[in-house]
Amino acid sequence: MKRALNIFFLLAMGIWSLGPFVWQWLTSVKDPAAVSRIPPLLPDMPIWTNYASVLQNREFMRVIGNSLAVSLGALGVALIVGSLGAFGISRFLNRRKHLALLTLLVVFMIPPVSVVTPFYSLLVRLRLMDTLAGLILIDSVFCVPLVVWVMVQVFDEIPDSLYRAARVDGCPAWTIFRRIYLPLGQSGLISAGLLCLMFCWNEFLFALTFTSTYAARTIPVGITLFSGQFEFPWGEISAATSLVTFPLLLIVVFAQRYLVRGLAGSGLKG
Amino acid sequence: MISAKLKERLIFIGPLIVLPGLIVAWPVLEVLWLSFRNRVQIFHIDRWVGAANYLYLFGEDLRFASAVSNTLYFTFVSVGLEFLLGLGFALYLRFSPEREWVKGMMLIPWVIPSVVSARLWQWMLHAEAGIVNYLLQSVGLTDAPIPWLSSPDLALHAAIFADVWKTTPLMVLLLYAGLLGIPENLLRAARVDRTPPFRMLFCILIPQLRPAIATAVVLRLLDAFRVFDVIYVMTGGGPANSTETLSLYAYRTYFQSLQFGYGSSVVVVQVMILAGLTAVAYRLLQGKNPAAAGDGPGEFHPRRTEVKE
After folding, report:
1. What is the pLDDT of residues B249-295, one digit of tens each?
2. Closest alpha carbon within chain A to B246
3. What does the buried/exposed string (b/e) look like for A99-122 if buried means 16 or more CB atoms within 10 Å of the residue's CB?
């Protein structure tokens, strides 16, 4: 009885989480002419024309490259600035630590639309409109707080005596950071990094507003702008979304542990 | 001269002051300042209007009022549903034989871009070709296809559904971490006493979980209140502005009517409502009960929670 209930629950959860993806994939391998006919639920034979046309679409390929560049760029900036900052906050700000963390949380929680116009004029002034560098700059504003939150928690757990002992021996703070803190905080960096990658990969409003050509558009913008001449090319959209979500599914399955730890263990507490 | 000690600290803190610091502080001030101006760049209008924007906003702007009510409705309904579902999932994960892949599967909707999940649901809720209507019709629950996205009464609910689907995993994660933090002794004692499950839930688990619930719900409130992606992609604010939320209204004021001054006052009010909502929610959920304190749930202190692996 208990076992049956358990299986039922697992099944329900599976359909809830995966069902939409299965349906999307089925749509993507249907004959484009028959895509909006239902029934049949299942195509007789998988047809790959949608994938062929998406893969030949130069703009879509560009968009994937842009997303990779923006995510990795912002990740790099955020990991450097964030881990430095987390060390500083964890070691040097005693009384004002909570204030600093709270401020960073507020930054992270700002509705994007409320800062979109000043960011717009900032990017215009820096001549970074419609460039990957511009998006990297803006995304890292939001990724840095994320890294700091996760890393402060990790650094706080490293015993103070270790730091003091190194200081007494005349070791400069920079070396302590590089030789002791960074290596010890490695798994924290992975968690924080994954959360950053997710943020940048999914970020939509800024990528939509600060780009005007395919020079810098990212995947979410590309998918939104995907439209046909007369009606929505649902088959191709499904193929495109299947292509970009598949790697994410793999990442979740393999790196789930780090995501859970980054979020639950610390990160967004408060 | 900067002292050596300060210099050493600046290496670490300095970048933070520039990167989120200045890059965020300046825009916030600029938005505040702009909200008292009338600026429409293409007509070369740019002048100080005092509180006129705010007076219009609160006095006459019916579209703003409906955006506020849509946003609040979206926020409360979706966070409420996510909480109930999330608590259920979290309890299941905590008290079932633990399997890593179940957690992985549960997380999947959360990692995909919200634009993708919006497209997914837009397609599944398609009036003629959507699988949802097909299934409903073949089970016999409805005769005619339901126009999920083109009916003003249903469209907002469809968007809420898509949001619940995508963000419930985050709620599960945070609540699950909270459940893992409950001391095993407490649960064992309750089991020895043969506490009925219902009482176990309401008298032990939920009170113990309170700090985690407060965090999770406040986090989701903040996030749901600024909803943009799902609505922009699924309905574009329509039909007849019935799904227009504050973020979308502000966005359209900025980039469709190009009124940068008025748009700024909309976002200022949005942030103020958000701040108020957060404060109230945190107070309510945290409660005045210091029993669960220990390491001070009121403090913004990254708490250590053991996560089993």
Report:
1. 999 999 888 888 899 999 999 999 998 988 888 888 776 544 444 44
2. A113
3. ebbebbbbbbbbbbbbbbbbbbeb
Q: What is the pLDDT of residues A152-210, one digit of tens each?
A: 888 888 888 888 888 888 888 888 898 889 998 888 898 889 889 889 998 999 999 99
Contact status of B263 with chain A (Cβ, < 8 Å): yes
Residue B89, in any domain of the structure: yes
Residue B80 has pLDDT above 70, yes or no: yes
CATH of the domain at B175: 1.10.3720.10
Q: What angle do CA B242, B245, B251 make, to 5 degrees?
A: 115
Tell me the shortest Cα–Cα distance from B291 to chain A, in angstroms: 18
Q: Could you state, in order of their start, the residue ranges of all structural domains in chain A?
A: 20-39+46-267
Per-residue pLDDT, B81? 96
Q: Chain B: give the shortest CA distance to residue A233, in Å.
A: 11
**Residue B184 pLDDT class (50, 70, 90 cuts):** confident
B285/A contact by beta carbon, under 8 A: no
| Predicted pLDDT of residue A265 | 57
Enumerate residue ranges in chain A where pLDDT < 50. 266-270
- Give B308 to chain A, closest Cα distance, Å: 9
* Separation of alpha carbons A222 and A219, rounded Å: 5
Longest dimension (CA), chain A: 76
Taking contacts as CB-CB distances below 8 angstroms, the residues of chain B near A173 are 8-9, 11-12
Pairwise CB contact (< 8 Å): B26 & A118? yes
Task: Note whether residue B165 is domain-resident.
Answer: yes
Please, which residues bridge with residue B40 across strands? Answer: B45
User: In terms of CATH architecture, what is A20-39+46-267?
Assistant: Orthogonal Bundle (1.10)
Amino acid at A31: D
Find chain A residues with C-beta within 8 A of B274's C-beta: 111
User: A116–B247: do the CB atoms touch at under 8 Å?
Assistant: no
For chain A, say whether B254 makes contact (Cβ under 8 Å): yes
Q: Does residue A13 contact residue B88 with C-beta atoms inside 8 Å?
A: no
Q: What is the ipTM of this complex?
A: 0.86
